[in-house]
Amino acid sequence: MRFLIKFSLSCILLTSIVSCKKETSWDIDAAFPIAKSHLDLRNFFGDSLFKADNTGLLHLDYTAQILNLTMDNLVKLPDTTITIGYISFFNASLNPGDLIYTNASTPANQEVTFDVADGVQLNKAIVRSGYLKIEYLNTYAQPINFNYDINSAKLWGTVFHVNQVIPGGSSTSPSAFTSYFSLKDYELNLTGIANNKINTLVQTYSIKTDLSGSADILHVGEGLNIKLSFIDIVPEYVQGYFGQQDLTFGPDSAYFGLLNNFNTSNFKLTQSSFQFSIINELGVELNSSINKLKSIKINPYNAITLNSGVLLQSINVNRAGKTNVQSNPVFPVVKNITLNQSNSNLNPFLENIPNYLSYSVKAKLNPLGNISAGNDFAYYGHGLKVMAHVDIPLAVSADYFKLISYNSSDFNKLKQLNNVNSCELTLTAKNNYPFYAKLQAYLLDETNTVIDSLFLPSENKINAAITDVSNTVINATDTKLVFTLANTKLEHLKKCKQIKFVSAMYFSNQPTPIKINADSYLDLTLSANVNYTSKL
Amino acid sequence: MSLKHVLVIVFSCYFVTVFSQYNSEFLNFDKTGRSVSVNAEFEMGSNGIYNGLLNKFIFGGKINNNLKDASNNKMSSSSVVGANMNYDISAFFGRNSKYSYLIGFKDQRIFNSTFTKDFYQLMFYGNKPYLNETKQLGGTNINSLRFQELKFGFIYHKIDSTAKVGASISFIKGQDLFYVKTKTGSSLYTNSDGTELIFDSKFNMAFSDTSRKSNPLAFSGIGASADLFFETPYQSSIGKGSVLTVNANNLGFIHWFDHSVQYSSDSVFTFDGIHIDNLVDLKDSALAYINKDTLIQKLSNARRESFNINIPANLLIINKITVNQKLAVSAGFRYLFNSNFKPYLFSNVEYKLSKTIVGDLHIGYGGYSRLNVGLTFAYMNDNWYIKIGSNSLQGFIAPKKTFGQGLFFALARKFKN
Predict the structure, then answer these.
(1) Residue A422 belongs to a domain
(2) Residue A10 lies in a domain
(3) Which residues in chain A are closer than 8 Å to B288, comparing Cβ atoms?
(4) Are B59 and A526 within 8 A, CB to CB?
């Protein structure tokens, strides 16, 4: 037994030592590529922003929507409630099936008029969505049959119809309930009984004792009370006379963020154009003006007002046409007004590199009155749009461009980084741009405080392409930047939550404009030599 | 105190007997008879990597350049490395004078690999010292396997009064598998400045359910195996008698379940960096791409499916000649199928030191390593049988200059007849 105990203790000792074994590790030297990129300006700002012209010169081509006014801003069918029914003024003995009341013989009671705002006079509408809500209150002791038609609301030729039996009740305990009926896709004739009115529906109804009931006495004060409500009506189509409305939009501002991460000094354009497009998808004439147009730069704040004389004032726009194609029912009318450096101060306006455009827009509908004879129209989703289209040929001068971008980068996900003892990064660049570039990447912690930078300021320059006196590129140049990530920098990299990249492009031979062509590029290859501890 | 010192103490304290580490319960039956026993075996070796470096994988620690260089300077273009470790508890029992039953539980770990010198260099030095070179990886394979088995068998020990025949079957629970095999032509080229890697990725790879690999209770596969044992004395012109022993064990397979993963690739990949549209817009997704698991998935065709693998089977043939009452010599052959084990030839000289103690000197060549020299001592009385020894002592004495090491131990409590 003693021997067995000795053996067991020895086994435990051996097992303990083996299980407490240290990590096995060894160092290797690895050389590998990390990333490769073929960059042109499109990589910085997005493909869709640039277009090349016939000469290969890149143009900054940007469109922003300044205003989008749709039909519901112009015409609204308000919620409308009417009360109908019959309350007896005398005691009457009734049998099942007896008629109590009908409005068939009193045309004045057959019309329902919508109180449409702003003097809009509609003669036709098609409902996109909306409901008829009917609330019943029966104080007669026997069930009552309610038969209701909206004669001027038709769906595929069929009149809107409701037939409802309301159970019997009493004055002290009336029978009450509510029903909802969709009016989706119903076409409404809003011209009344004689087709000479506006905003007016026609309805007929009758109230009878129901055949399921018994003979009984309808006492004084008893009867059927009905509340009809047209609620949440959204038209798909409206037609009529929209009146001479004065519409004002703004002052307001529209985001114009084409160059938000762009910073420059002494930036000068050689050429530019700014085209405003007023797109009228309404079947109504317009007279509009675009006022108080300003280029607003946020940081540092600077605002420049566009001076374009009367070019943007009193712009008459004809009414849109109908295509009779359901999926695209409107043939819009587009009015373009082009501004450039010769008819405005457009270059300084754009050289401000705006983040926002502020504006106010005025529009008068039907400036000449009801010349369409009540045939103004509007479709859901269509209206009045104002677009601003910028075209800047990239033949520009400046001291420098500076691009700043922020990227969240949690290097803690790269567990292998913990095993890196030293790292030497090599950035190889082939530059075909007529400017030299300086790259810097700032490491930010979770409080956005800069804790380190990747490149030494003296060793981050990518040489410019070789150019002639007119800044035309003759040959690309190669640059090799080598930088060491020492332990401190590696530790900072692990703590980094965000990297702020600053790429500065410096122009030489200024103010001679440089041209940036579609085939300009900057090839970058990043590779690493790493001393790494492998662990098991 | 290092494990090496402990092992020396253990050797010094417990002197005991013979018949060595061949992963078979039947081999000791001649000495133990009906008994309950615990057995543990460990062997590791390489014909290209010195023990000094391999020891770092057992005991931990930093592998310095001296250790790397020593093996690098010695190894040939293709080498092998392997390790087997198993322990078991088993019992022979029964009342019949002609045969006994066997029941046992065993845990086995098997690792073996053939690797090119280029593979070794890339693994331990990295690719930077080999810029503008193509490193050949073809022919490299790595097999790592761990499983547990429940064994049932019998031994018929009264054939012609002295011969023995034994057999057992085992039900296997697969715990962990890792397998990779590169084909001819597989290589890695690094250009002169490290900006381009060309990986000719002809390889197959498989592993069991990775989420459970470290869990000894993991049931990632199921299988079966059989052991066969035959021993017969015969008359020879040399000595006073001879015994021929033939043992084959681990004859079986494991079926790995559906969560196992297989990779295969047969393409040439040129990697010159992750192509990023904007280097100053390095998103997390780009960083994730650099992750090694992501790279493997990009490079290969991964699929989850079940598959079978054969367990490395162990064949042992020993011829023992009894010279006189105290001295016996034997010669043997050992081979592990489905592994990278080289044919192993060995000889033992067994000397009875006293009535209860037997010593055994072992000399062999081949296997995972090269020359092996070992010593075993066994102590035996009516109640106990204890054996401790090594077939590869050289690894404990001069680890920096030798290949291979091993250790085994058996303790048996004999049943009263």
Answers:
(1) yes
(2) no
(3) 413
(4) no
Are residues A410 and A379 both part of a single domain?
Answer: no
Strand (E) or helix (H) holding B297: helix B292-299
Whether A249 and A370 map to the same domain: the answer is: yes
A82 and A230 share a domain?
A: yes
Q: Which domain holds residue A125?
A: 76-241
Q: Does A16 touch chain B (CB under 8 A)?
A: no
A2 part of a folded domain: no
Quick: pLDDT tens for B55-66. 998 888 999 999
* Chosen domain end from A361, A393, A425: A393
Best to test chain A binding among B118, B280, B294, B381 (most A CBs inside 10 Å): B280
Q: Is the Cβ of A25 closer than 8 Å to some Cβ of chain B? A: yes
d(CA B57, CA A25): 9
State the complex-level ipTM.
0.82
Please check whether residue A39 touches B, CB under 8 A: yes
| Strand pairing class (A333-340; B303-304) | unpaired
pLDDT tens digits for A464-495? 999 888 888 899 999 998 888 888 888 888 88
Of B249 and B241, more confident:
B249
Residues A208 and A270 in one domain: no
Contact between B61 and A22 using a beta-carbon 8 Å cutoff: yes
Q: Which of B119, B245, B244, B138 minimizes the C-alpha distance to B181?
A: B138
Cβ-based neighbours of B350, under 8 Å, separated by 6 or more: B18, B320, B327, B328, B329, B330, B358, B359, B360, B361
How far is A361 from A384, CA to CA, in rounded Å? 11
Taking alpha carbons only, the member of A128, A112, A153 closest to residue A76 is A128
Supply the CATH number for residue A382's domain.
2.60.120
Domain's final residue, options A241, A265, A298: A241
